[in-house]
């Protein structure tokens, strides 16, 4: 393809991106009526929605994690369900089960709360692995089998799972192979002083913001199709791959000191999701092409749960975020 043709294609694609981005600007404004000072979390929710991926949110209680996904569901006019994970939860409580109907002398399917556009898996690490597996299988396959019947999950389908990092008693740690299925792992921090003042004032008043549906599910589906067309240059592709390969073979990238801190590197899902998330980031910034800053901005969220730390790293209290910072500093952006 000649450079002239490529430039023309990007120009036409930019017009489409601007049209679709208008709806997402409205969506963001609507969410911000109820969510104050958590722009990072809102952006990642939208990236997950656009990239057809799921999100693992880690943060202490009270940081509006539940409210954020409920508000997103209301603003998109989608169906929302919340599953509170507890140690006595069963897989059937998540996906559904066969119920015996005495009147008809037959079994009927009772669908579980997983059959919604937006599913909040609250404190996912509180339920046993059998339940986690049932949820994660549905996330991966986008379908559920109950008895002999396989049923597709609604589109769009977004799971937001939360974890409390401070209370680990009576929890079941997500295995690496399962946490790898989440597109992003986001660490949520406290709001700043002024934002918390606004939150306090808003809650103190009797007038709570009413969230209106400003985007249709069809708008979301169309925007998701557009994400795959956003231009990703070969140099950016190499930059993404270098970043992921540096977690596996740090010594080849002049980062030999990290070798003893990493027990295993990021999987191929990291490369795939980093490319998709970078495209979604470019879309939210009204661009039809990805730049290195898009990759840098989303890299930690894609990589932090896909790397294993060695005992040496844990003994020295080195985090995956610190390792990713060193990789970002070392690998030259195109």
- Beta fraction: 5-15%
The CATH class of the largest domain turns out to be Alpha Beta
Mean pLDDT: 86
Strand order of the biggest β-sheet: 2-5-8-1-9
Estimated structural class: alpha/beta
Helix count?
Answer: 13
What would the principal axes of the Cα set say about the shape? globular
Secondary structure: helix percent: 40-55%
Main sheet record: 5 strands, parallel
CATH architecture of the largest domain: 3-Layer(aba) Sandwich
Count up the domains: 2
- What would CATH call the homologous superfamily of the largest domain? P-loop containing nucleotide triphosphate hydrolases
What can be said about this structure in brief?
The protein is an alpha/beta fold and 334 residues long. The protein has 13 helices and 11 strands.
Describe this structure in words.
The protein is an alpha/beta fold. The chain folds into two domains: 175 residues, Rossmann fold (3-Layer(aba) Sandwich), CATH 3.40.50; 100 residues, Magnesium chelatase subunit I, C-Terminal domain (Helicase, Ruva Protein, domain 3). The chain is built from 13 helices and eleven strands. The strands form four sheets. A five-stranded parallel sheet has the order 2-5-8-1-9. A hairpin with a 2-residue loop joins β6 and β7. α10 packs across α11 and α11 packs antiparallel against α13. The longest helix has 32 residues. The two termini are 21 Å apart.
């Amino acid at each position: 393809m000649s450079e002239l043709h490529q430039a023309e294609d990007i120009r036409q694609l930019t017009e489409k991106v601007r049209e679709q981005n208008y709806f997402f600007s409205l969506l963001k404004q609507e969410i911000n009526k109820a969510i104050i000072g958590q722009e990072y979390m809102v952006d990642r929710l939208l990236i997950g929605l656009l990239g057809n991926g799921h999100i693992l949110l880690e943060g202490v209680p009270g940081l509006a994690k539940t409210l954020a996904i409920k508000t997103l569901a209301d603003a998109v006019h989608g169906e929302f369900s919340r599953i509170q994970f507890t140690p006595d939860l069963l897989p059937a409580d998540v996906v559904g089960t066969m119920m015996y109907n005495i009147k008809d002398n037959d079994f009927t399917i009772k669908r579980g709360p997983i059959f919604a556009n937006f599913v909040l898996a609250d404190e996912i690490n509180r339920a046993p692995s059998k339940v986690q597996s049932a949820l994660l299988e549905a996330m991966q396959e986008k379908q559920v089998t109950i008895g002999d019947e396989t049923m597709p999950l609604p589109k769009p389908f977004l799971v937001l799972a939360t974890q409390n990092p401070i209370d680990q008693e009576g929890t079941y740690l997500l295995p690496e192979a399962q946490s790898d299925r989440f597109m992003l792992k986001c660490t949520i921090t406290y709001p700043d002083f002024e934002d918390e003042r606004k939150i306090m004032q808003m809650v103190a008043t009797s007038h709570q913001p009413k969230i209106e549906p400003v985007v249709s599910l069809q708008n979301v589906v169309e925007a998701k199709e557009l994400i795959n067309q956003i231009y990703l240059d070969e140099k950016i592709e190499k930059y993404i791959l270098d970043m992921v390969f540096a977690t596996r073979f740090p010594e080849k990238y002049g980062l030999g000191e990290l070798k003893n801190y990493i027990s295993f590197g990021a999987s191929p899902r990291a490369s795939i999701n980093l490319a998709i998330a970078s495209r979604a980031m470019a879309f939210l910034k009204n661009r039809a092409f990805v730049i290195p800053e898009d990759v840098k901005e989303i890299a930690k969220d894609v990589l932090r749960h896909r790397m294993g730390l060695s005992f040496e790293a844990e003994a020295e209290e080195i985090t995956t975020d610190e390792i990713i910072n060193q990789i970002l500093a070392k690998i030259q952006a195109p």
